[in-house]
Amino acid sequence: MFEIKYGDDGAVLCRGRLDAAQCEKAQGFMDELEGENTLDFGDLEYISSAGLGILLKTQKRLAGSSAGLKIINVNNHIFDVFRYSGFHAIFDIKAKE
Amino acid sequence: MQREFPRHLNSLAGLYEFTEEIMKAHDLPDGVRFPVHLAMEELFVNMVHYNPTVTTHIEVGIDVADQVTVSLVDNGGVEFDVTTKRDVDIDAPLEERTPGGLGIHLIQNLVDSLEYQYKDGRGEVIFTKGSGKEDV
């Protein structure tokens, strides 16, 4: 199960498991983003390389207009995946406290 | 425990439930379950994507003892050695990065051992991950 929607504070809330079967849903939402955006991963349990591809594609598109994604509340397992992928250098990432 | 899954991304939910049920029954911690789920998904998705015309199911086995041992068997697929080191530049700047290619790189970093065998159209991947209980 994967859910993506806007929160009350304007951040994009991601919940559940972002695996390869959920990419179409995630990509459809991310394709609509413009400007600076915060992704709140507080309720995201899991992400695979398919999800990383969506983040990277979106970041590259937004970078064309000098904007980008900030990712907050990242759990330690997903943070490890970001670290192994070098994403900490191309995204603004904040771990869950 | 072994089970066969249809060669489709829609199988991922069932694959997760099958694996999670076994690992939770053995009280394995998140730090073990997460990388096992990730490696299993990446390998399964590779078998789906690289063999789009093959109709056989993918056989998945999992055994939990001192370590978690997972096997995925692909009958009728092309040879795809997941143990080969991939040329992934994780230090490349954003403008030089392209989506894709990270799955095998992640597996090789997150599991303890990774083996691949291919013979007569039968490909088998076996990986292990410590159960976190080795010293208990």
Short key terms for the protein model shown above:
heterodimer, A: 97 residues, alpha/beta, Transcription Regulator spoIIAA, 34% helix, B: 136 residues, alpha+beta, Heat Shock Protein 90, five-stranded antiparallel sheet, 3 helices
Short recap of the structure:
Chain A has 97 residues and is α/β, with parallel strands linked by helices. Chain A has three helices and five strands, in the order ββαβαβαβ.
Question: What would you note in describing this structure?
Answer:
- The complex is a heterodimer of chains A (97) and B (136).
- Chain A has 97 residues and is of the alpha/beta class.
- Chain A has three helices and five strands; from the N terminus they run E-E-H-E-H-E-H-E.
- Chain A has helices at residues 23-30, 49-63, 76-85; strands at residues 2-6, 12-18, 37-47, 69-74, 92-95.
- Chain A has a five-stranded mixed beta sheet, covered by helices on one side.
- The longest helix of chain A is centred in the middle third of the chain and has 15 residues, at 49-63.
- Chain B has a single domain (2-130), classed as Heat Shock Protein 90, CATH 3.30.565.10.
- In chain B, 32% of the residues lie in helices and 26% in strands.
- The mean pLDDT of chain B is 93.
- The A-B interface holds A 17, 19-21, 46, 48-50, 52-54, 56-57, 59-60, 63, 77, 80-81, 84-86, 89-90 and B 9-10, 12-13, 16, 30-31, 34-35, 37-38, 41-42, 45, 89-95, 97-100, 102-103, 105-106, 109-110.
